[in-house]
Amino acid sequence: MADPFAADHCPRLIVKIGSSLLVGADGTLRRDWLATVAADIADRVRAGQQIAVVSSGAIALGARALGLAKGGRATLEDAQAAAATGQIALAQGWASAFADQGLTAAQMLLTLDDLEDRRRYLNASATLGRLLALGVVPVINENDSVATEEIRFGDNDRLAARVAQAAGAQGVILLSDVDGLYDRHPSDPAARFIDRVDAITPEIEAMAGGTIGVGTGGMAAKVAAARIATAAGVTLAIASGRDDHPLDRFARAGRGTIFAADRATPARKAWLAGGLTARGDVRIDAGAVAALADGKSLLPAGVTAVSGKFDRGELIAVIGPDGRTVARGLSEYDAADAARIVGRRREELADILGYAPRACLIHRNQMALL
């Protein structure tokens, strides 16, 4: 079977590395291990692959330098201070490791809003594209020094998936302290390793709930990242990074869980599907769920409830009768008007709202099914 992450199948690759791999028990950077990762990446770049790295580790490094308790996560202020301090050491470590391989590194610090706001997302995409075209290796992290609890990714797994969308990548490899997804906690002797996932079902999500890793994201965050990536036509793998030369080991042994990409999705719809900050939601009945699956727009008649505060044009989630999110899209109405037309037919809308209304609540061209 062809390696889906080789340069000929995957011209652009995102590699995510967690804190537990980069930072040792003593709170310092694992420079010898990092050198082997840089060597693996350099081999791939020489083979014609363009690579960006999503790197955790700033808070852990900064916490040691500042002597902060609980790894710098006792308070939001501690985490922000640790991130600001540790990011310098993290960037220096990557720059040095890549320089030893004859590569140039660049740093990009992103917030959730940078990838949730469409204009800022396109700006980030353009920067990533130019850096990769120049043969530079971008090293990306969440800007934890300014992120808040309400406005942050919280884990770099989902950040890596969103970066893959922005970069136009074909693959993501999440290097972790676990080697992939199991059907139950891997400490259980009866645990079965899952080497390939073709569809992220409720059963797969349930497996992730029982296989939490050491990092802040855990397996649930990795499966959430896989949902974002695969919906955008990006193949994602979870593989162990515990040993030296982890990318080379993964390429040779193939030990890991691969989440197969869906067929390519138009860029705007992929961005909508991967959105993490819906301003509100609408609940719909089974008939509306079927209509959306058939390619129709969402009409008010199929809506049963509206919640949240949102303006026209903002991202909202569409939730089916079973409680699962079935779509995300840009609302044609603000929350107040949307609530007034719940369950109403098209010909009733003008009388209710007092103006000539838009026929749908979310147009199919502004919606992505999940």
Question: What's the gist of this structure?
Answer:
38% of the residues lie in helices and 19% in strands. The chain has helices at 19-22, 31-46, 58-66, 76-99, 112-116, 118-133, 156-167, 202-209, 218-231, 246-253, 267-273, 286-293, 335-340, 349-353, and strands spanning 12-17, 50-55, 105-110, 137-142, 171-176, 181-182, 193-194, 196-197, 235-240, 257-259, 280-284, 303-308, 315-319, 325-330, 367-369. The strands form 3 sheets. It has an 8-stranded mixed beta sheet, sandwiched between helices. It has a 5-stranded mixed beta sheet with strand order 12-11-13-14-15. The protein has a two-stranded antiparallel ribbon with strand order 6-7.
Q: Could you characterize the architecture of this molecule?
A:
The radius of gyration is 22 Å and the shape is globular. Strand 13 and strand 14 (325-330) form a beta hairpin. The two termini are 28 Å apart. With 370 residues, it is of the alpha/beta class. The chain is 38% helix and 19% strand.
Task: Please describe the structure with a list of short key phrases separated by commas or semicolons.
alpha/beta; eight-stranded mixed beta sheet; globular; five-stranded mixed beta sheet
Between the first and last Cα atoms, what is the distance in angstroms?
A: 28 Å
Model regions low in confidence, pLDDT < 50 over at least 5 residues: 210-216
Pairing-aware structural class of the strands and helices? alpha/beta
- How much of the sequence is in beta strands? 15-25%
Could you describe the largest sheet, including whether it forms a barrel? 8 strands, mixed
SS elements, strand count: 15
Adjacency order of strands in the biggest sheet = 3-4-2-1-5-9-10-8
Q: H/E order of the elements?
A: EHHEHHEHHEHEEEEHHEHEHEHEEEHHE
